[in-house]
Predict the 3D structure of the following.
Amino acid sequence: MRNPTYPLALLFLALIASGCSKSKTCSPKSVAGEATQIQAFATSSGMNATQHSSGLFYEIVDPGSGATATLNSNIAITYTGTLLNGTIFDQQTTPNNTASNPPWPLGQLIEGWRLGIPLIKEGGHIKLIVPSAMAYGCTGYGIIPADAILYFDITLVDVQ
């Protein structure tokens, strides 16, 4: 008599093997592939957006008049971050320039901010539409889903 668990064991091993052959990596969407969706959002939001050579879209509301941030700068900002559907995923209404909430190193932030924030000076205000590959890509982050294009309204309060 045959052992009835033998076919089940083979099936189980086959399922495990097929699961191991699948790639566990993701591929970010191309910046160019999201340009139409970004332009549509900018138009519907009333933004007079400019496209940076990187693919980042921005509108300088106020250029500011103080220091310009570099990748080696620490920055204090106020901002609101939303998904294109209007969902606010993060917001900071008071600047991060206290001992308990210190300024952030610009060089360690998402690529969209590393490119966009230096377009204004201290005291400036900018709106950024960040392609997903320049934000959190195909992995997402917290409540930000994978492949999410992000919109930020940022005021650069202090550059150190």
Remarks:
- The CA atoms of residues 138 and 146 lie 4 Å apart.
- Confidence is low (pLDDT under 50) at residues 1-23.
- The longest helix spans residues 5-20.
